[in-house]
Design brief:
Length: 343
């Protein structure tokens, strides 16, 4: 793999990293003021920066072995908007060499948020930007909205900026209050790649957000976070009824999961998958097959699709010390389409 020095003929002035994340409970609630329960994964994205003395940014992805050149102040195409969005929002007026390498698989593990947070961390160091870790995450959300075209919530960037691998991070996405929550005793997390690629801007993500916003309007509330009696959503027309039912029930599952043992927590994860599959309609048949295989394994407490959906990764809560063996056994049956990401 080509290094920064080999690619640009200089050493990077700054280098920064940020992790991907996996969400245990609380999917598609963060843009309705809800509760989420992610954790960081060990895999990180690393970004190096160096001034190049020109009016053009040179962006190099080591994973793709691809170089993009984008004039300062413009956005560009391909993977450029994730980077140029960060540069433009941070007021960069000079050309930079940008080198990216990542261990975070795409699809459900917030690879884009990890890229944004790593880039913003590097910019904060290079230019002495007055951004705390929460403000930095919120700037990453702005990048998604204004430059990438995905109307995401705040969970992914907050998790990449604030979470660790030792605990889950409960985030109230309305107030941004947060606290560390221990994993259920006797359990560990397993993440598998379903092998089904997806792209959020081309999927139904923005459509789902529009549907739940309309549901909230019809119910006369600011956000579905404010609905505590799930029966009131049954008066909505389909598919708004189903979309709202997922969000309201998912918020309740997060709160129940805070004190749950491994068996109960796993059951909540199973219920989340059913809700994402049936009410929110963001799963995929192959993903469902992988989840079923996991749920049937005797060392698995629960399993579900994770991330925005439409493909990507699945997450399971498994008996402590069994993640690698469970992953190997399940993927052998599944057809070796994925790989163990986090044992």
């Amino acid at each position: 793999m080509t290094t920064f020095e080999q690619r640009f003929g200089q050493v990077p002035e700054v280098t920064a990293s940020a992790p991907g994340r996996v969400n245990l409970l609380g999917e598609h609630t963060d843009y309705q003021g809800g509760f989420v329960l992610p954790t960081a994964i060990p895999q990180k994205t690393t970004v190096g920066l160096g001034r190049n003395g020109t009016d053009t940014h040179v962006l190099y992805s080591a994973n793709l072995d691809r170089t993009l050149r984008v004039p300062v102040g413009e956005v560009g195409e391909d993977f450029a908007p994730y980077l140029t969005g960060c540069l433009n929002l941070s007021g960069v007026t000079e050309g930079l060499n940008v080198y990216i390498t990542s261990e975070v698989p795409s699809g459900g593990l917030s690879s884009s948020a990890a890229l944004e947070v790593a880039t913003l961390r590097a910019l904060r160091e290079l230019y002495g930007l007055a951004l705390d870790d929460v403000e930095l995450a919120l700037r990453g959300v702005q990048v998604e909205h204004q430059f990438v075209g995905v109307q995401c919530g705040v969970m992914d960037q907050l998790a990449s900026s604030l979470a660790d691998t030792r605990t889950m991070l409960l985030i109230d996405t309305r107030s941004l209050e947060r606290r560390a929550v221990p994993f259920p005793a006797g359990a560990e997390v397993l993440v598998l790649d379903s092998g089904v690629p997806r792209r959020l801007a081309e999927s139904g993500y923005n459509e789902r957000r529009g549907e739940v916003e309309e549901a909230a309007r019809l119910l006369g509330v600011k956000e579905l976070r404010d609905v505590t009696d799930i029966s009131v959503v049954e008066a909505l027309p389909s598919p708004l009824k189903e979309r709202a039912r997922h969000v309201v029930s998912e918020n309740a599952r997060v709160l129940e999961g805070l004190e749950a043992d491994a068996v109960t927590f796993g059951g909540l994860m199973n219920a989340t998958h059913a809700s994402l599959r049936d009410d929110y309609a963001v799963s995929h048949p192959l993903v469902d097959d992988l989840v079923v295989l996991l749920q049937a394994h005797p060392d698995v407490f629960g399993a579900r699709i994770t991330g925005a959906g439409f493909g990507g990764a699945v997450v399971a809560l498994v008996r402590e010390g069994t993640a690698a063996a469970v992953g190997e056994a399940v993927l052998a049956t599944y057809g070796s389409l994925g790989k163990v990401v986090v044992p």
